[in-house]
Amino acid sequence: MSRLYKTEGVVIKRLYMGEADALLTFCTPESGKLRAVARGVRRPRSRLAGHLEPLTRCRLMLAEGRSLDVVSGCETEDSFPALRSDLWLLSCGLYAADLADRLGAEGAENRRLYRLLVNALDALDSGVDPAVVLRHFEFHSLACSGYLPELWECARCHRQLEATTNYFSPAAAGLLCPDCRGREGLDRPASVDVVKVLRYLARHEGPDVARLKLGASLAREIEDLMQGYVTYVLDREVASAKWLRELRGAYRTGLANGGRPGQP
Ligand SMILES: [Zn+2]
To answer: How far apart are alpha carbons 248 and 242 in whole angstroms?
Structure first.
């Protein structure tokens, strides 16, 4: 008999295997990223079906296998129904899941990353501004994976930053003063307001973050800056981030909105 164990987790990736099985990746508190096979999950009468959709938070019973563990039981804890019924929110949730997949390590406990992902899905599901949710998730998921950006002193000369336009350098992992601004081309100006928002995101959690209001142009500046850092750290762009940009374009022209142009 193989050993059984329990954990909770969020489904962050699902690949179908053969006719009826699926290979699932979970983000879990104790085991970090965990991959397991769900046998027969595509059969209509499978008792696992419906519990293992991407972004579902569930309680799992797993059996240790020789190479991969096997899901032997599963109960849904939260399926985030509001998020799931809106294409934009669902896409934002899938981006957060992708990031957790890329930053998480298999078998390495990461309670913080798990908690951040669950909180992000919960916030998207309860109507918090997705731009705020995603920037907070990007900042802290990078921070808890060893990529905490320096926001208070110049990452190169270590002088206190002044209230002027500074520069964010992915290579230096933080802000640079105007004297040290990099010549690498990836560095981008960070206005006083951008720095203020980044510091706010760094210091706040939960309801305090939910209260943050970002105007469209400030939101875009911070998005570009954070996604530049994510791309630098992961050494390539996250595919679902590209999809979010394409989808936003489709909303603007009305293609994703039944002909009514709008802003997601
Ligand atoms: Zn400096």
So the answer is: 10
**Centroid of ligand 1 to alpha carbon of 158 (angstroms):** 6
What is the rounded distance in angstroms from the CA atom of residue 137 to the CA atom of residue 167? 22
- Domains annotated for the chain, with CATH where assigned, are 4-78 (2.40.50.140), 81-253 (1.20.1440.120)
Rounded to an integer, what is the distance from CA 156 to the centroid of its chain? 28
Which pLDDT tens digit goes with each residue over 171-180? 999 999 999 9
Distance between Cα 65 and ligand 1 center (Å): 52
CA 223 – ligand 1 centroid, Å: 24
Q: What is the pTM of this model?
A: 0.94
Q: How far apart are CA 56 and CA 10, in angstroms?
A: 6
CA of 42 to the centre of ligand 1 (A): 56
For residue range 80-97, list pLDDT tens digits in order: 999 999 999 999 999 999
Residue 256 is given by DSSP the state T
- Going from the Cα of 102 to the center of ligand 1, the distance in angstroms, rounded, reads 31
Ligand 1 midpoint to CA 156 (Å)? 5
